[in-house]
Amino acid sequence: MIVMGRIVAPFGVQGWVKVHPFGDDPLSWRRMPRWWLSADDTAAETGWQAHTLRGCRQHGKGLIAAFEGIADRNAAETLQGQYIAAPRDAMPE
After folding, report:
1. How far apart are CA 76 and CA 14, in angstroms?
2. Cα→Cα distances 77→10, 29, 70, 71, Å
3. What 8-state DSSP symbol labels residue 82?
4. Which one-letter DSSP state was computed for residue 39?
5. Higher confidence at residue 91 or residue 43?
6. Would you state the pLDDT for residue 88?
7. By three-state DSSP, how is residue 3 classified?
8. Domains of the chain: which residue ranges?
9. Alpha carbon distance 38, 24 (integer Å)
10. Which fold has domain 2-90?
11. 49-76 burial, b for 16+ CB within 10 Å, e for fewer?
12. What is the pLDDT of residues 10-39, one digit of tens each?
């Protein structure tokens, strides 16, 4: 898994989260339909949970993103601190 960033906080009341990207071109992540999340950035591939991306856009120096099944601020708060990763073959070129 390639660790790409970290969820730093919920954003708004509709389930969006603020993302601190670790790379140069985080908007390219929008081309990936799924992001994998884990509290442990060194977890084996089986330790990451796939989430389907509902939306992603630039916000300041970072991103905001939304996932299917995360519909409100309370649900978004459960993702705070999670690392974002993808398998190498899923990364945008």
Report:
1. 8
2. 6, 22, 10, 11
3. -
4. S
5. 43
6. 87
7. strand
8. 2-90
9. 21
10. Elongation Factor Tu (Ef-tu); domain 3 (2.40.30)
11. eebebeebeeeeebbbbbbeebeeeeeb
12. 999 999 999 999 987 888 888 899 999 999
C-beta neighbour count of 7 within 10 angstroms = 23
Task: Report the largest interatomic distance among the alpha carbons of the chain, rounded to a whole angstrom.
Answer: 34
Residue pair 38/47 in contact (Cβ under 8 Å)? The answer is yes
- The model's pTM: 0.91
Question: What residues contact 3, with CB distance under 8 A and at least 6 apart?
Answer: 22, 41, 83, 84, 85
Q: Collect contacts of 70-78 with beta carbons under 8 A, ≥24 apart.
A: 70/15, 70/17, 71/14, 71/15, 72/13, 72/14, 72/15, 73/10, 73/12, 73/13, 73/14, 73/15, 75/15, 76/10, 76/11, 76/15, 76/16, 76/17, 77/10
Query: Distance (Å, rounded) from C-alpha 58 to C-alpha 66?
Result: 12
CA trace torsion 53, 37, 87, 45 (10° rounding): -140
